[in-house]
Amino acid sequence: MSARRIWAIFLRQLYLYRRSLTRLLDVFYWPTVDLLLWGFITLYLERVGQKMPHYVSFFLGGLILWNILLRAQQGLSVSFLEDVWARNLVNLFVSPLTIREYLLGLLLVSVFKVSLALFLMSFLAASIFGFRILLLGLWLIPMVLNLCALGWSIGLITMAAILRFGQEAEILAWALAFLFLPVSAVFYPVSVLPPWLESIAHLVPSSYVFESMRAILLEGEIRSSLLLEATGLNLLYLLGSYLLFEKVHQEALRRGTIPKIGE
Amino acid sequence: MECVLRVESLSKSFDGVPALLNVSFELKAGEILGVVGPNGAGKTTLINCLLGLVTPSGGRILYFGLDLFRERSRVLQQVNFASNYVALPLSLTLRENLRVYAHLYQVPSPEERIKEVLELFGLWHRRDEPARKLSSGQMMRLCLAKALLNRPRVLLLDEPTAGLDPEVAHRTRELLKDLRRSSGLSVLITSHNLHEIEEISDRLLIIQAGQVRAFGRVSELLARFGVEDLEDLYFRLIS
User: Fold this and answer.
1) B149 burial class (0-12, 13-18, 19+ CB within 10 angstroms)?
2) Among A91, A197, A240, B97, which lies 20 to 30 A Cα-Cα from B205?
3) Do B99 and B110 meet the contact criterion of CB atoms below 8 Å apart?
4) What angle do CA A102, B141, B3 make, to 5 degrees?
């Protein structure tokens, strides 16, 4: 394992973002638009629905944490796509770089993107709507880690699909995470879901994170058992998605498809 | 002379269709080996196997006595590759591109080395321009600069002069010959340009339908088959 090779993967993406206004906009524009839109909707709801005084913390907390999952996933899969689009995969994969180093480099990119989004959204939420994400206290750390872990699992599955099916699967880089949105119970409790969807939600780690966020923000109650369950599921999914990616990579080497990706 | 690359009974099939069949050859230190064959002969599959991009169905690939698939990182640290069909990221400047690869290949004193290789290919004055501003010939020169960045012991080139104008193609061939002389670089090169291959190669590997049709020194092969030049030899073997 070489730290310098991992750094090279991070550096390649950093150079890309430094020179591309559209990519920078993607990092800053959507989180800002999301936050302003939902922030003003929830302010309005608070005014007309006096019985629910916690709309702002409820929605904005959910929105900020959901963006963490999204950015973590895209930090992996979109960065991988950047190498596919640039027809750069061959140059990378014929270098001494190992698959683990490549994935760790992309994880670093993902952490960077998550940090930017978290900082930006927290700052805007506090300065415009008076919502402070730090109300979650130190529990914010395991929440963020769990959401990143699920984002990485989804990212690895997306990358495996692109490696297996080529660029036809690239839509998954934007769409797959949203499949988890309804069952993550970001903006409502799991209990409002129909029973069959509720049982699916119990298999999704993010649903435990959002439930525990609501417990802290609405009731001031810390339900650490929820975060423990999320961590257990995430470890399982991370291992599973890594093994899937590794298997698809070996299969791509056997089928000789890597040089053809991006053509 | 030391053998830097030994290929033993290499075979590869895709969905039961053979692309390479029992291919064996070796590359010695400081040697240029030309690989020729018609389209679909298996040249690209051979290079992809030699780079570890395709897992062979059978046989072994040994660089410096090390098995490529067991000692991948260690081997590829001393090998590099350039192809007319593989680009570098267009949004990055020339220097940024090479900086990334200098880290990947763990090149000591990367900035000095980047300057050396860019000067070698006449691209130093364009170091801070994005690669998208390069012509196809200049892009190939940048890829060659990347390929020499880590001072490889073995260089694999897939049709490297295909997009170059005659003058730059000539300079590239001269450069490869110089590097072979000065640093003992070993080169495996594929090309459809038979004159180029004849001019540059010490030995020749002719493959067709995934099988070796001839392997040896160019002069020996010409004498063995009683032909005047490589073009005659090629058409006699391939037809």
Assistant:
1) buried
2) A91
3) yes
4) 70
Instruction: Respond yes or no on whether ipTM tops 0.85.
Output: yes
In chain B, where the domains are located: 1-78+190-239
B128-164 pLDDT, tens per residue? Answer: 999 999 988 888 889 999 999 999 999 999 988 876 7
Site of tokens 């490589």: B230
Task: Render pLDDT for A170-202 as a digit per residue (tens, 0 to 9).
Answer: 888 888 888 888 898 888 888 888 899 999 999
User: What DSSP state is assigned to residue B213?
Assistant: E
Q: Which two tokens stand for residue B192?
A: 């459809």
Q: What is the pTM of this model?
A: 0.89
B110 and chain A: CB distance < 8 Å anywhere? no
Q: Following DSSP, what letter does each residue of B22-57 receive, concatenated?
A: EEEEEEETT-EEEEE--TTSSHHHHHHHHTTSS--S
Pairwise CA distance, residues B202 & B184, whole Å: 13
Sign of the CA dihedral with B48 first, then B51, B52, and B56 last: positive
Architecture label for domain B1-78+190-239: 3-Layer(aba) Sandwich (3.40)
Residues B137/B108, Cβ–Cβ less than 8 Å: no
pLDDT for the residue A230: 94
Q: Which residue has the tokens 């090629």?
A: B234
- Contacting B with CB below 8 Å, chain A residues are 2, 4-5, 7-8, 11-12, 15-16, 19-20, 82-83, 86-88, 90-98, 250, 253-256, 258-259
Task: Identify the domain containing residue A193 by its residue range.
Answer: 3-260
